Amino acid sequence: MKAAEIRSRFLNYFQKNGHAVIESSSLVPQNDPTLLFTNAGMVQFKDVFLGKEKRPYTRATSSQKCVRAGGKHNDLENVGFTARHHTFFEMLGNFSFGDYFKKEAIHFAWEFVTQELKMPKERLYVTVFEKDDEAAEIWQKQEGVPRERIYRFGEKDNFWSMGDTGPCGPCSEIFIDRGEKYGCGKATCAMGCDCDRYMEFWNLVFMQFDRAADGKLTPLPKPSVDTGAGLERIASILQEVDTNYDTDAFQHIISRTAGLAGQAYDRAKDTAVSFRVIADHSRATTFLIADGVLPSNEGRGYVLRRIIRRAIRHGKKLGLNTPFLHKTAGFVIEQMREAYPDLVEKKAFIEKAVLAEEEQFFRTLERGLALMDEEVAKLGDSRILPGEVAFKLYDTYGFPLDLTRVICSERGLSVDEAGFEKSMDRQREMARKHWKGSGEEATNAIYLRLAGELAGQGRLPRFTGYERMSGTAEAVAILVPDEKGLHLADAFTAPTLAATADSAEKAAIIEVIFSETPFYGESGGQVGDHGRITGSGFEGEVIDVQRPVPELIVAHVRPKSGTVRVGGQYLQETDAEIRALTARNHTATHLLHWALREVLGKHVKQAGSLVAPDLLRFDFTHFQAMTEEELRRIEDLINEKVWAAQPVSKKEMKKDEAIAAGAIAFFGEKYGEKVRVVRVGDFSTELCGGTHVDNSAEIHLFKVSSESGIAAGVRRIIATTSKGAFAYLRARDQEVKAIRDILRASSTDEIRGKLDKMAQTERELRKQIEQFQAKSASGEVDELLAKARRAGAANVVTGLCATDAQGIKRLRDICDRLKQKAPDSVIALGMAGPEENKASLLIAVGPKAPQGLSAVELFKEVAPAIEGRGGGKADLAQGAGTKPAGLGEALERVLPLVARKLGV
Fold first, then answer.
1. Residue-wise pLDDT tens digits, 140-150
2. 877: phi then psi, degrees, rounded to nearest 5
3. What is the Cα 481 distance to its own chain's centre?
4. H helices of 262-346, where?
């Protein structure tokens, strides 16, 4: 049975048994700052298990994409060498949120395994927590598992906890006996042995207790179930193969990779590990990029970069010396396209992102290996690569430490990791957040609790802002800040303050939730509304509106006078101008998304946005800066649609129908079964809950103000519309007029001619300066050579050059002239910088100088005199320091140093 069929059967079985089939959540966890990646099926249901979130179902099933390659769950170094370690895998799971418990969970698992998958009962074993008599009895009496096949284990193996405190409970696992050939051969080999004979493939977690800080376990009022079964493990059982890599889930990728490498995959050869690594890492790379992770030097992006570069390293072992991983990512998409159709839509972008990273690494890989060869040659009897070298390989050539470690291991070397970390610490000041802060910010628990309570009362706020701009409704909750955070209050009275701007800013900002509201809460990139609240003697200014959880719309209010009370009726009025300006920018964002895909290609996807009254900011996937011509085409396309007065329709549809109709989902949005579809004319269709104009003509004008890169493969456009666009153009016009006045041009039309003349004059002056400097350098060169001859050291030329704005460039120019006139010399030049505490130093070895001299080694020995750092090659090294006063000492050290190295 193939992996795809196992996945399908699992989901269908549980759907038939009353479970809602929930699609896999992103590999980037939402609302969980503790996780680097989604690593289990229960992650997307965490708040449901904790009682912080309500769902419209109490039974669920999913096939969850998971990655374990960073943080606590880091399997990266084992991947390829073991039978079942992976960076990417799929977790099949069924979940009960206070619905069924042990009896049903055990029955579902046993029936699916023995009836649907036809696993032989005589080869199956189960484990239970040593004190869980209930589960043991259910397995034996309800499902007929013989007592001798039920094993009891302690808390280490069969008790699960979400954390030090909170929900926890016993586990029950299902194992299969794979046969004697997988055993250790010991007479004592049995369940619980560490060998490969008995393999666990399904874990049932029974959340039935709440653990307090003192360790006390209190039964939960509504126990829950969380199960997890590894798809790849089940496939290896049903396909009767030795490892997960021998299943169809990997063999398709491995066989195609073998075609690229021009050699067969042989499980018995050392190259098998490299084939496995590439297959696994291709899967992880493909799915991570599809979920918005791009290679970088921090957080998730750094883990992805390590995965890609580890795969490239193993590719080189197979003779794949040009970019190949973008092709193997394509093999993954071929195989997974039915289960994950979004991969097909993102195929071009995924392959382009992988290729860009490959090309970047291939450019530096050979140079990095050459540096390592050079440094290893210097080690002598030492078998430890210095930490500074490992850091340079990381910082300059992009070698992750684990790659350096592996390469050194292959050469019988180790790495000075303490020295590496010391070098890292000097550079890490701005990157100390790393992965722990890379999850989404956790939602304040008070909002989750409040949403649950209001949902239970049927009083969650209803948004009326699509239909009207004002309305009267009941205040159902008030949140007031104090030194500990937010707390619920029955009422709040505006403080009496002197009517000054300063006192108004210091007034407390409270949060009010209404039974229904016309105020749009910030979401989908669109900022919240502004407005005012009045009623029952109360007046307050709405300065922001947020949606801390999808179900709540929370108005941030600055009270001006009177008292606001829970249960009171209040008129809410939206600021019409701010709403209109924001709506124009939001519809323009959709037009921009469409135009970018038209001009740049369908690989363009939204990667973030901000829609405000004064501007719009749009982040999108693309791998190079846009040209002026491309930006012009974007503006032209959008303005043509604006001026063509295209109708803008908004309609609620089922999500599947909307996607099938060609609607594009926006980045960061969470969608339910019912979605709002915004269509502009017949060319742009998006899923979007934001506010929009009714006709494109209301946008008036669209103007790009900037385009820039913000991350690897991500660009950003900032633009304006309507009044904002007019203000932008007026400001540019004023700047042009200011330039006209500075140039003393009679009109703006003369500016270009004036600037051309100034540029020509500057070029002529620069040429004259270069000629003067050449004469000066020639004289300086002759003087340095004469000085060396007078000192009796014609083959060592040293000199402290006059401070020059060109700095090291000036030193290189003098050095080149010295090499021409004295090719057999060692040259050492220094210069104090125009800035305080800046010194430049250059050392060169002429092409005809004595053998055995290295500019880099000479530089390292004299640079401490200026507290300097630098680098280079055997013929030229340069760098800078912070102690100009040491330049004389540094230069004086060169002659005796050269003499010592030559044995003179």
1. 999 999 999 99
2. -135, 145
3. 33
4. 271-290, 299-317, 325-336, 342-345
Interstrand relation of 531-535 and 491-493 (parallel, antiparallel or unpaired): unpaired
Tokens of 492: 């709040």
Token pair recorded at residue 891:
């230069």
Contact indicator for 121, 111 with CB cutoff of 8 Å: no
Q: Report the share of the chain in percent with pLDDT over 70.
A: 94
Q: Which backbone phi and psi does 651 adopt, to 5 degrees?
A: -145, 140
Low-confidence stretches of the chain (pLDDT beneath 50)? 429-441, 498-501, 503-504, 667-668
Q: What stretches of 537-661 show up as alpha helix (H) in DSSP?
A: 576-600, 628-643, 655-660
Indicate the DSSP class of residue 216. -
Closest to 101 (Cα-Cα) out of 219, 259, 248: 219
DSSP designation for 443: P
What confidence tens digit (pLDDT) does each residue in 346-370 have?
A: 898 899 889 989 988 888 777 888 8
pLDDT tens figures, 711-735: 777 899 999 999 999 999 999 999 9
Q: What is the dihedral angle through the alpha carbons of 392, 397, 398, 400, rounded to the nearest 10 degrees?
A: -50
Average pLDDT, the chain: 88
Q: Can you list the positions of beta strands (E) in 483-628?
A: 485-489, 491-493, 510-514, 516-517, 531-535, 538-546, 554-561, 563-565, 569-574, 606-611, 616-621
Instruction: Write out the two tokens for 22.
Output: 């929930």
pLDDT at site 372: 83
140 and 150 Cβ atoms separated by less than 8 Å: yes
- d(Cα 573, Cα 535) in Å, to the nearest integer? 11
Radius of gyration of the chain (CA): 34
Contact between 159 and 167 under an 8 Å Cβ cutoff? The reply is no
